[in-house]
Amino acid sequence: MENTKTNTPVVETPATTNSEEKGGKTFSQEDVNKIVATRLDEEKTKNKQAISKAVQDAIAEERRQAKLTEEEREKEAKSKREKELREREDNITLRERRLEAQEMLQEKNIPINLVDFVVDLDETKTKENVEKLAETYNKSVENGVTDKLKGNPPKDFSNSNKKEETDKKKTIVSAF
Question: What does the alpha-carbon distance between residue 119 and residue 98 come to, in Å, rounded to a whole number?
Answer without folding.
Answer: 6
